[in-house]
Design a protein that fits this description.
This protein is mainly beta. Helices cover 8% and strands 34% of the residues. A hairpin with a 6-residue loop joins strand 3 and strand 4 (72-79).
């Protein structure tokens, strides 16, 4: 039984598809929204990446359910576009949130890669995805 905990830690580390940024690497600003994203979709949200190093050639993106170590939602790699915008639907190996009856916390991780594929900067943003059945109607249109 005492060997189980270290084994689980090793397994969780091995399941990660992202290479960590080197110590002292710049931190990327990452912004995205779940607005307009239906549950259980394979269409990734629009992502804005800020503070991108000039030598960046590609972005590696991964969506992780932080409540379940083994729950990876994929992502993928895309060319780094000017302005750091990753358009909606650009991630080909993405599997979006599919919660049942409770909000679930997700972390969107982005790594900036140079021409050799080495991670030169990284950033992340956490947000809860609230199932449609639990969302409150917007009051913006009410007087």
């Amino acid at each position: 039984m005492r060997f189980l905990a270290p084994l689980l830690v090793l397994c969780a580390a091995a399941c990660s598809t992202s290479q960590p940024a080197p110590r002292g690497a710049p931190e990327l600003g990452v912004e995205f929204t779940w607005a307009g994203v239906p549950p259980c979709t394979d269409v990734s949200p629009r992502i804005v990446v800020r503070d991108v190093p000039p030598e960046t050639r590609r972005f590696r993106v991964e969506l992780v359910d932080v409540d379940s170590v083994m729950s990876r939602h994929g992502g993928g790699e895309v060319e780094a576009a000017p302005g750091g915008v990753i358009p909606s639907g650009a991630l080909k190996s993405y599997r979006g949130p599919c919660p049942s009856q409770q909000p679930i916390e997700y972390e969107l991780r982005v790594a900036a890669l140079d021409a050799s594929g080495r991670v030169i900067a990284a950033g992340k943003e956490r947000q809860s995805y609230v199932p449609t059945s639990l969302r409150r109607p917007s009051r913006s249109g009410q007087r």
